[in-house]
C-alpha cells in the first residue's frame, strides 16, 4: 500500500470517509432514484475538486 499518510489513524479516517460516502450514495440511489443524475453530478464535482 502507498505510504502517503504518515499516521495510521489518518489512513483509517480517509477510509472511513470513503466508506460513509459510498454508503450515502447507495442510500440515495435506493431511495431517490429520480435524483440519480444530480447525485452523479455532485459526485463528479466532489472528485474534481479533490
From TrEMBL:
Pfam families in alphabetical order: ATP-synt_8
Membrane topology: Single-pass membrane protein
Listed transmembrane segments: 6-29
Any one GO molecular function term: proton transmembrane transporter activity
GO CC terms: mitochondrial membrane; proton-transporting ATP synthase complex
Top-level lineage group: Eukaryota
Primary location recorded for the protein, binned into one broad class: mitochondrion
Keyword Zinc in record: no
BP term (GO), one: proton motive force-driven ATP synthesis
Compartment annotation: Mitochondrion membrane
InterPro entries named in the record: ATP8_metazoa
Keywords assigned: CF(0), Hydrogen ion transport, Ion transport, Membrane, Mitochondrion, Transmembrane, Transmembrane helix, Transport
Subunit description: F-type ATPases have 2 components, CF(1) - the catalytic core - and CF(0) - the membrane proton channel.
Family, per entry: Belongs to the ATPase protein 8 family.
Protein name stated in the entry: ATP synthase complex subunit 8
